[in-house]
Amino acid sequence: MKRIGVSLLIVVPVLAGCGSVQKEIAIPKSTIQEMVDAKFPYDKNVVVARFTLRSPEIYLAEPNIGMKLAYSANFLSKKISGTVDFNGQIVYKAEEGAFYLSDFDIVEIAVEQANFSDQAQLKDAIHEVVNNYLDGFPVYRLNPDDFKQNLSKLLLKDVRVHGDDVIVVLGV
Q: Is 15 exposed, middle or buried (0-12, 13-18, 19+ CB in 10 A)?
């Protein structure tokens, strides 16, 4: 452990003295998908319904990260099901070493049942369920036992979506 601390005391000032040094690390969509898959299915009661969210599918569309989910619900005494698609920004919380979906919007809601007339109420209810759930769990968490990822916590400068990866920019 002392060797790591001594190494950091030497490396960080040397890099800082060299001007701006940056390194990009790519987190593949598949890695994020695995972490999200572990959080589903999810069941939640809200005032007007009981929802089950399942089968998350992550997609990356610069500059956003998105998720498509299947849902089923007992909504206003009607059994309904379908899919919901939403996207938002990816943000990093340094104190937790984790990346979260933030400021997301529902892009599309599909209802499998014909003649469903409560679309606006359904959208509000799904948004509440998804917002409350996603606000509390990371889509990716740095491994505290991995030296490189621990170092990343200290040097992280930017996070962005590019192609099929989330790009983490490290710099001093």
A: middle
